[in-house]
Amino acid sequence: MAEQREQQQTRTRRRVRTSHSIEAVLAAAVGILDESGAQGLTIRALATRLGGGPASIYWYVSGRDELLDLAADSVLAGVLNDVSDVGGGDPIDDLRTIAVAMFDAIVDRPWLGAYAMRDTGQQVNSRKLYEKIGEQVMRLELSPRQCFHGTSAIVGFVIGTAADMGQEPPAAVVSGEMDRDDYLAGATAEWRALDPAEYPFIHHIVDEFATHDDRDQFRAGLDLLLAGLRLTAGR
Amino acid sequence: MAEQREQQQTRTRRRVRTSHSIEAVLAAAVGILDESGAQGLTIRALATRLGGGPASIYWYVSGRDELLDLAADSVLAGVLNDVSDVGGGDPIDDLRTIAVAMFDAIVDRPWLGAYAMRDTGQQVNSRKLYEKIGEQVMRLELSPRQCFHGTSAIVGFVIGTAADMGQEPPAAVVSGEMDRDDYLAGATAEWRALDPAEYPFIHHIVDEFATHDDRDQFRAGLDLLLAGLRLTAGR
DNA sequence: ACCTGAACACCGTTCAAGT
DNA sequence: ACCTGAACACCGTTCAAGT
């Protein structure tokens, strides 16, 4: 009789207890992150979005840190997929393609910069991406040590630059692009107001800064790094 | 009479109200950061250390974010001082010297990576360091645009790499080096356990990873970037 | 000018208990 | 196996009031 009621509940009764899955949890987390950034992703907000209580989250994840790591890694699956065909061309060109794909993903999702590629033990896609980059470097026929250094440098540069650019402006606005332009204009004005004798370099490049595009800036830096790598590889 | 009492209080009576200064606030903040990392720096912990209430902090600083920014920047004064004599030699060598000084500072204080050089509007020393790096790049006789890109690349690489290396391990230990070695050993073991067919690169460099030194790794990457810059400058 | 007291509106995390 | 309820021990920030 108890069994019968049990079955009836399972079959017909409206679920009173919400039930998720790790995929649903991470998808909801990414949704919140996209809307309100890392600051907005609270355990409680996530639980509310999933229709349950905060404690339920801890069944899927050990804590907020792991949640952030896994959410970031889940998004990298898309990047990995985008570059799945890369690997047959010139190694340096392939490296550029992969790095740009990663950068673009972080530009789309500024919160990614701080959590992507942090722990390859836990983050499967981060590890696969690291491997993928490393495999291109391997084709340059360098020593293991040089391979290791080259790969680390590329990853460090991509994540570092992207994280820096993806930072929320001091005023902490998580909205449209009007604010971004305002921020740039404000910073430019501040720079122009500096003493030219004390800040010759800043005055020298302030016009470039005023009109710069993050993507161009990233690519220019990446090309410097890749030029150095090509030089080291002697090809 | 009220004035008289006022004076007496000021002169002779034991102060019941604690009084600080922005310097004292930042010094205390740096102390907490060094001991317990960014997570440990709460407004309340800082107030307690200063012997006052949490609200008093807000007289000196607009909030926790600004506190972190200013604390980080205050530490960069030391770096700036360490490189004050740099600037007369080969531009690329000078750039390396400055970059290594910054890196070393962040290795000493892992929390620095996330807050240094974030907002040159508010962070005076960050701005001066950016200027200093830029001035060396200027000596390479590149276009303003190339100067801007080169300088940004170096800063991005230093901060990015250092921030990545300075991350607290997943287990979040803020203590000695035995833990750091344990962490490295654990990660190495995980890598060795991966399928060699799926992860040829990781297996190719795992021995390097196991014995690597963060500083060497940083310098190797920096040299790639500087080699690219030198190539672009044609000297 | 600079600080206190006290509150407001949150947090992450835990754990016994339920289903 | 997976979730709820309810609590614990915190947070950052504000603001009237004091000195």
TrEMBL record, chains A, B:
Listed GO MF terms: DNA-binding transcription factor activity; transcription cis-regulatory region binding
Sequence ranges assigned to domain HTH tetR-type in this UniProt record: 19-79
Lineage: Bacteria, Bacillati, Actinomycetota, Actinomycetes, Micrococcales
UniProt key word Transcription regulation: yes
Record-given protein name: TetR/AcrR family transcriptional regulator C-terminal domain-containing protein
Record keywords: DNA-binding, Transcription, Transcription regulation
Source domain of life: Bacteria
DNA-binding region listed in the record: 42-61
Pfam families: TetR_C_1, TetR_N
GO biological process, one term: negative regulation of DNA-templated transcription
